[in-house]
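Annex B.
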Amino acid sequence: MSVAIIGAGIGGLTTALALKKRNITFTVYEAANELKPVGAGIILANNAMQVFRHLGIHREIERIGNPLCFTTLSKPDFSPLTRVDLKPFEQEFSVQNHTIHRADLHKILVDAVGENNIKLNKRLKNVAREKQQFRMEFEDNSQETYEYLIGADGIKSKVRTTLFGYEDYRDAKQLCWRGVTEFDIPDHYKHELVEAWGKGKRFGFVPLRNNRVYWYLLINKSMGTLSSSPLEFSGDFLPIADAVMRKTPKEKIIAAALYDLKPFAYWSQPNVCLLGDAAHATTPNLGQGACQAVEDAYALYKLLEKNDLKTSIQLYPKIRLKKAHSIVNTSWKVGKLAHLGNRPGIFLRNTIMKATPDKTNQKMMRNYFQLSDF
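2-polyprenyl-6-methoxyphenol hydroxylase: predicted structure tokens.
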């Protein structure tokens, strides 16, 4: 049995680790020509940490990551609209939410999977089904043939567009800047994510380990362009927003327009499946994008307990579709709600948020953190 995984991102590598734990031989193909530190911060919510506990790498993540105990949505002056205590979930699920630099998580996964199982500089050019196998052609003109194929190659997935013929993207009409910098953040923020909602824009930050801070700024597309400096939009927020962004070297700031993938129901065909952003790319408004890719890998891992790979690939979407699509759709709505541009709408939104009972927010979080039943 031969298995090819396209994409060495978090979803692809977690899937590779899941297969390794089930003693299934695989090869990961990655477009980049080297495994170098990239990206900004990432939130590993309780659901992802539960999966990493099952796969045996949660202790390493806990050693390098920073525990996250509270999430706060606020006004631009950082006065809270909602504040969710995450500590009860630590007791319920026996793991903590953590923040970590994406590059640090990537290294943990690469070490667990084994670099010898990853082939670099392999950007997929084309893939075709030939009888019972898949013939893959890469941009370096090399070719490989495999019996099974897993597409973890992101929102612009070549596996999806070629074999599934689906590329219905949605433009969120928002721009995002992200960065990580060293910053001496006040002690009361050491284990808290704060996201401040302004008029057509928002700013968020969360501490990482070793005095580093991951921050992000989003605006409505109508307010600027990707060539704009994020500092142009920091004026409505407390001075800490401006200070954190100024401390970040310009070349370390990542700018991108936000898109997602309109939900669709066909993630698998005989012997091939999609996972992560290739199957259900989402806007980053719930901190669940990478976590949902990790859950995809866990679904395959659990299914392989009692089924062969062929059957597991067929069953996996039935387990994951409902939750993943709920995350995508909820995140889309939250993004629109967060970026209201009229004051009456903002006032009404803020009033409702402040009046929402804590138990309602806790219930919503629990739905995100609970892994699927098998």
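Residues 48 and 291 are 5 Å apart (CA to CA). The chain has a mean pLDDT of 95. Further annotation is deferred to the next reporting cycle.
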